[in-house]
TrEMBL record:
UniProt-listed Enzyme Commission number(s): 1.4.3.16
Entry cofactors: FAD
Lineage: Bacteria, Bacillati, Actinomycetota, Actinomycetes, Kitasatosporales
Role according to the record: Catalyzes the oxidation of L-aspartate to iminoaspartate, the first step in the de novo biosynthesis of NAD(+).
Source species of the chain: Streptomyces glaucescens
Keywords: FAD, Flavoprotein, Oxidoreductase, Pyridine nucleotide biosynthesis
Protein name: L-aspartate oxidase
Residues the record marks as active site: R297
Gene Ontology CC annotation, any one: cytoplasm
Ranges of Pro residues composition bias in the record: 563-576
Biological pathway: Cofactor biosynthesis; NAD(+) biosynthesis; iminoaspartate from L-aspartate (oxidase route): step 1/1
Coiled-coil intervals: none
Region called Disordered, residue ranges: 553-576
């Protein structure tokens, strides 16, 4: 697979760094990959869009799932994951996750992460939606992500690893054979470098997180603009399952006009016994699923949306008054503080909640070692589609997936290095002309895209809503293209216009896949196709970007992914 030749309109790099590996992103996936690569003797550079501890990982409240408790097993964890994935999980990918997960968590603890302990001294484990066992390890009550981020950032700094902060990655560099040769990036006015530069490296690990900012209301931080998925598409990589966006059922409702990052009310609150109720105090999830309020997230989100529709309500409530002040303060201090900051006291009143965009189950398609369809380009964490999540991510599997697959990527790169397969590559010079080849979206397009996606491709979708969304997105795409073609003008290069352009790219792919999938499965809910259709749709939708920026869409033959490479390299590590 070679590059499509599409690059963001940007100044030529004015500086460069040489490395063996560049890791883009500083969440659990990125920093784990970087630490393992560095430990293997590889010259590793970490690039991150804000500060090292500003990624999505720090916002994770619930915890990390692994079969660590008495009576639990990887087989039981696998079963729960497959059920949540609604027939679209790649079973090999899930088996890797649940089998390697417990030891990966223990290594994370060895790196310095401190998890909450039970009175007996072992890990304190809780339950979340879709889990039949208590297998969620947590830290600081509801601050698991913040603790994992702290431990990994401290480890990176203790080892003196080279980092480039406040840097937006732009595009993949490739050599004459289409193999990875590094990335271009823009440093936003702070640190040793400034402006557009490059990191030259034969291995690039994308760990850029999600794309929740494609919707108006999300739990994702403002930096989650789909940069990694858009970069991969421009580089010729395949993406899959982008239609499966998980909307977290219980996000603090701040009003119908609220936009941007919204406070999450962790599933662990329900895991500890909170109830979902309507304005009359009726528990509407009872009888809808064997696990009730702890059903998989897609089922709970649909239950909330249905009740909202029936009653003409803008939100439902989460009632945990029976916890009492002491439990709220010790088990859920972060959520308690967020609620009180918005004038709501969960100790005394039910908390208003509604679904909001939370997690992208799809992303850049990878194999069991994190390799994409572009040689030398890897992906892990939320930006990747390993096949683990299928049509709906099981609660707290995301941190584990980032951990396990980051370790696998590092092992694969280290094996290539040991086999002399990792050597510096000369990037192809990017053609420069007075007129850019591809237009940028204006900064204000970000808000237009978010409104289009929220109205047409949110929790509830239909052929009509998706067609309208596709038409409006195409209009944004065409207007920018025509302005460039007719008068040579486009938006000025900059962080805001690059982000808006990335958001439009991933939005078009998401809507195209959602239009094609004429069924309801997992977190993809089509009102006009209310049933799951295993005969026609127990398969994945895979998308590439053509050189003219049109979309090449195909479906796989089965629920398992085809290989990312026709002939896997000889250094491929053995399956464990």
């Amino acid at each position: 697979m070679t590059s499509t030749g599409i690059r963001l309109h940007a100044p030529a790099p004015g500086w460069s760094i040489d490395a063996d590996v560049v890791v883009v992103g500083s969440g659990v996936a990125g920093l784990t990959a970087a630490l393992r690569c560095e430990a293997a003797g590889l010259n590793t550079v970490v690039v991150t869009k804000a500060r090292l501890d500003d990624g999505s990982t720090r916002w994770a409240q619930g915890g990390i799932a692994a079969a660590l408790g008495e009576g639990d097993s990887p087989a039981q964890h696998l079963d729960d994951t497959l059920v949540a994935g609604a027939g679209l999980c790649d079973e090999q990918a899930v088996r890797i996750l649940v089998t390697e997960g417990p030891d990966a968590v223990r290594r994370l603890i060895g790196t310095g992460a401190r998890f909450d302990e039970s009175d007996g001294g072992g890990l304190a484990l809780t339950r979340e939606g879709g889990h039949h066992r208590r297998r969620i390890a947590h830290a600081g009550g509801d601050a698991t992500g913040a603790e994992i981020s702290r431990a990994l950032v401290e480890a990176v700094r203790a080892r003196g690893m080279r980092t480039v902060e406040n840097a937006l990655v732009l595009d993949l560099l490739t050599d004459a054979e289409g193999r990875t040769a590094g990335v271009t990036l823009h440093v936003m006015g702070e640190g040793q470098h400034d402006g557009v530069g490059a990191v030259h490296a034969p291995a690039v690990v994308l760990a850029t997180g999600g794309m929740g900012q494609v919707f108006s209301a999300t739990t994702n931080p403002s930096v989650s603009t789909g940069d990694g998925v858009a970069l991969a598409l421009r580089a010729g990589a395949e993406v899959s399952d982008l239609e499966f966006v998980q909307f977290h059922p219980t996000v603090l409702f701040l009003g119908p006009e609220a936009e941007g990052q919204q406070p999450l009310v962790s599933e662990a609150v329900r895991g500890e016994g909170a109830h979902l109720v309507d304005a009359d105090g009726v528990r509407f999830m009872t009888g809808q699923h064997e696990l009730g309020e702890l059903a998989p997230r897609d089922i709970v989100a649909k239950g909330i949306m249905r009740r909202m529709q029936e009653q003409g309500a803008a939100h439902m409530y989460l009632d945990a008054r029976h916890f009492g002040a002491e439990m709220w303060e010790h088990r859920f201090p972060t959520i308690l503080a967020a609620c009180r900051a918005h004038g709501i006291d969960p100790v005394r009143e039910p908390v208003p909640v509604a679904p909001a965009a939370h997690y992208a189950s799809g992303g850049v398609r990878t194999d069991p070692h994190g390799r994409t369809t572009v040689p030398g380009l890897y992906a892990c964490g939320e930006v990747a589609c390993t096949g683990v999540h299928g049509a709906n991510r099981l609660a707290s599997n995301s941190l584990l997936e980032g951990l396990v697959y980051a370790e696998r990527i590092a092992a694969d790169i280290a094996a290539a290095h040991a086999g002399s397969g990792l050597h510096a590559r000369v990037p192809q010079p990017a053609p420069r002309s007075e007129v850019p080849e591809h237009p940028l979206q204006p900064a204000e397009a970000r808000f237009a895209i978010q409104r289009i996606m929220t109205e047409g491709a949110g929790v509830l979708r239909s052929a009509d809503s998706l067609t309208k969304a596709a038409d409006r997105l195409q209009r944004l795409h065409s207007e920018a293209r025509d302005a460039l073609t007719e008068n040579g003008k486009t938006a000025e290069p900059g962080v805001d216009t690059w982000e808006a352009t990335n958001l439009l790219c991933v939005a078009r792919v998401l809507v195209a896949a959602a239009q094609l999938r004429e069924e309801t499965r997992g977190c993809h809910w089509r009102e006009d196709h209310a049933d799951r259709d295993d005969t026609a749709w127990r398969r994945h939708i895979v998308v590439r970007l053509n050189p003219d920026r049109s979309l090449a869409v195909r479906t796989t033959d089965t629920a398992d992914f085809p290989p990312t490479r026709p002939n896997p390299p000889a250094h491929r590590p053995q399956e464990q």
